[in-house]
Each structure stands twice: as C-alpha cells, then as structure tokens.
Amino acid sequence: MPRRAYRTVEVFTSRILRALREEEEKPELWFVVVPDRIYKYCRPESNVEPSVRLQAKVQFKSMSKARSFYENQSLFPEVDDAATAYFYEEHFHNQLKARLLDAMVLTQVAKESTLSNIGREGDPGIASADVRRQSEIAWNLSTGIFYKVGGRPWKVSSIREGVCYVGLVFKKDASTGTTRNACCAAQMFLDSGDGVVFKGAVGPWYNEDTGDYHLNRSAAKALGQMVIESYKKKSKDGRPPREVFIHGRVRFDKDEWAGFEDAAGRETNIVGVRIRHELNLKLYRQGQNPILRGLAHIRGKRSAHLWTKGWTPRIQTYPGRGVPNPLVIELNKGDALIETVLQDILTLSKLNYNTCVFGDGMPITLKFANAVGEILTAGPLKDVPPLPFTHYI
Fold it and tell me: N or C, which terminus of the chain has less Cβ within 10 Å?
C-alpha cells in the first residue's frame, strides 16, 4: 500500500528536515539506521502478515482517482496529502533519497542487522558466513562514508585530464499516465572521480516497438549543455572539456546525436559509445584460472570485445563465479581510437567507491544507471538541480 511506505519515510525525513531548520549544527552526513522490518515491509509488492496487520483507511481505490485530487487540489489538505502518497514509489530507500534531494541532504542508509553483525565465529547464533562478511561491511561503510563527505578513497592514475564521461539513464515514469513517457538523466564522471547527476526532461522517449529510449534534438541539447556547463564550473581554468564520451546501452539515433553535437560546439569532441553484455561468447585458457581481466579482442576500428572481469595477477585471484563474459564496445557516433575507449572503460570499472570489489563488470557511468533512475522517478520531483552522485548511493 502506498501510504505505508510514504508514512514510514516521513518519520525519518520530517525529523531530518526539522533539525536542519531548527538546529545550529548542520551534519555533513545523516546515518539512517532502519529496523529490518522496514526493509521487509516497505518494498514493492511486500505484504504484511495478518498477525501484525492493521486496517488502514483507504481514501483512493485507484491511481486515477488519486491523480485527479493531486493535480486539481481539493479543499481538504488531508485528502491532498493522502493523494500525494500514490505518486511515490513503494520503496523506502529510493523514496527517502528522492524526498531529500531538494534539501540536498546526504544520507547513509543501513539496516540494524548489518551494523549488529559484530560477533565472533563460534558465538551462539553467529554463522561463519556472517563473520566472513564483517570485513566487507566495514570496507563498504567506511569507503562509502569517506566518499560522501568529500574524500576520495583512491584515484586511478590512467584517467586522462580534460575528458569527462557521461552515462545516459532512462527510467519509465508511470505517474504520467502513459507507457511511453520516461525520465532521462545523465551521470557525469570527471578525471578526479567526482560524479554529478543531471535530471533531463520527462517525455515520450520510449519506443514500444523497439524497446529503446531516445531523446529528441532539443532535449538532447539541453542535457548536453547542462553537462558541459557543470564541467566548466568544476574545471580549474573554466574551459569546456576537450572530449566527452557518452555511454549508452543502445545506439544513438541521428536526431538525438545532433542535439548532443549542438551542445558540444566546436571546442569539444563528442563520442558516442554503446556498451552491452555479450552473453554468447566465452573464452577459455589452459590451466585452472580464467582469462585475464583487461583482455580485448579488437574486431575493427569501431568495435571490440572487452573482458572487465577475469583473473587479476596483482591480487592473484578471480573475484567472480563461472566463466566471465565480455562487454561489447561499439563506437556508435564520433571518432576516437578504439584502444583509448577500451582503456577508459576498463579504468572506469575501478571507480565504484560503494562496494568491496577490485573492479566491476560495468563502468561506473552505467553501473548505477538503474538505481539513479529509480530515485529520480520515485516521486513527483520537479526542477531537480545538478547534484553530486553521492546523493543517489
């Protein structure tokens, strides 16, 4: 039920926002520690057992009824408030992040059971698997917190200066009443590891026939301009980037790419890269270990296979399961050396500060695409300013 998640989130957001208004101290980061029952009951399609269920007053029997009250405003504030709950996703984490975006509040969400996992092997009720996870939990929390308050746990030496990388994010927006409308956003990452998320226009970007998302020319130009202006503010000399690589899961179409070129102008070389998993190709090597991480099969000047997972000599292990599959990398628009593109993508797979792994399978530009999209569509958000990526993880 929408109101269950909405009211639960409000218990936390109301106290955080009140403290920001009334208290002199302004914390850089808020820890939101939630009981496991919130994780269990405040997620999509979750059900409360009859033994603990309370009967709630249902004011709207359908989304259309709630939409009518929300858009037209009734004479009774309590009815409008009840209608608002239907426009938020029934997901505690995503809704909490979304409702705190306007106030630019940084949060670290954790379950009570995660933080209470401090027992020793052999203690009553402590499983060996839980003990093995303790170092992973400590790493994830410490590096994630350090990053959110402005630190950089590490920086990859091979990232090139004057270059930024952008991942396109699309997420269907069911609140608009049509299956074609989607929210578009861009995740920009700089050579320093800084990340910024921009919310673009909501529009009919989804093609039901092909299952792809594409912007029109004006929307692509507006999004591209936001990216470049943000880069100029963060750069030391205030100049636009020399190169912008836009990563997507599908090929960019002609109209969409013309908009990005309009935004780039003459000073910036813009390159479109399609990245997707290859499920039909596996390579094997002699011996017990899988192929090396970083192996590439260059098929031509504009396409290649890249293995971002595999045996890593530096740590003498393969942190994965099964035989690793490659990514298919395709230069869809613009011009660049395929070897440079592959090296950049491999490097970007090491910039995830939110997990205890040596390298991800996907570059950071696309790794969190779904998570960012879900937060941006978790409620009726309007005029969301460009915010650091830390607000979304």
Answer: N
